[in-house]
Amino acid sequence: MTGFGETLGQALWLILSGDADLWAIILLSLRVSLTALAIATLIGLPLGAALAVGRFPGRRTVITIVSAMMGLPPVVVGLAVYLMLSASGPFGIFDLLYTPAAMIIAQVVLVTPIVAALSRQVIADLHTDLAEQLDSFGLRPLARIPTLLWEGRTSLMTVVLAGFGRAIAEVGAVIIVGGNINHVTRVMTTAIALETSKGNLTLALALGTVLITMAIAINALVGVLGARARSGVPAHA
Questions:
Q1: Which stretches make up the ABC transmembrane type-1 domain (predicted)?
Q2: Domain range holding 164?
Q3: 8: which of 66, 122, 138, 181 lies 20 to 30 Å off by Cα?
Q4: Would residue 144 count as lying in a domain?
Q5: CB–CB of 180/173 below 8 Å?
């Protein structure tokens, strides 16, 4: 216990003292995950809304596929992106492998189905509640999407936060396509795995503490937003 206490104290000191290596890893993690989340949100929210209100042949099949993709194994996604970006792959000419861009691509593939599937359910429920009002305006199904996205913004924020939680905690895919290169592609999850294997528990525990704190903060915010959505409190209240 004494050893653990000392290690924890050293880890907290690393965080509070502004250790350059620690914060470089944290900031790169945030940059990669937030960029991936922004792209996944721009794709996933409209896709989810279109699947919720649109009516077209094969719609149920698309919904099933999107829902199934929520459970994509990260290492398989990493392998697929690796093959696409490798020198012999179709996108090898762009030389993106082992760069933050490759990690962003892998996270986008993982997060987009989550955002699309969860937002589809939110928009579908909201569309049912507002169907009569929207019908009175004479709006076609796809023309209703901007209104539904705006009206469901509080609930959709919880969807986006769920996507961020998935992205920031990813390790399997990003280590395959990023290579865990120091000061280039080393993020919190890959650094924790590496430093633990090296026996550098202070840095691993410091990063783990930051990651857990983020997870708690995200879940707390999801809970608050979920409660607001259920009570009908506006997002700006």
A1: 26-222
A2: 20-231
A3: 181
A4: yes
A5: no
Q: Encoding tokens for residue 166?
A: 């998935």
Tens digits of pLDDT across the chain (237 residues): 457 788 888 888 989 998 899 999 999 999 999 999 999 999 999 999 999 988 888 889 999 999 999 999 999 999 999 999 999 999 999 999 999 999 999 999 999 999 999 999 999 998 888 877 876 777 777 788 888 998 888 889 999 999 999 999 999 999 999 999 999 999 999 999 999 999 889 999 999 999 999 988 888 887 787 777 666 544 443
How many Cβ atoms sit within 10 Å of the Cβ of residue 38?
14
* Structural contact between residues 209 and 146, judged by C-beta atoms closer than 8 angstroms: no
Whether the Cβ atoms of residue 98 and residue 185 lie closer than 8 Å to each other: yes
In total, how many domains does the chain have?
A: 1
Count of Cβ atoms closer than 10 Å to residue 80 Cβ:
17
Asked whether residue 2 is assigned to any structural domain, the reply reads no
* Distance in angstroms (rounded) separating the CA atoms of residues 185 and 178: 5
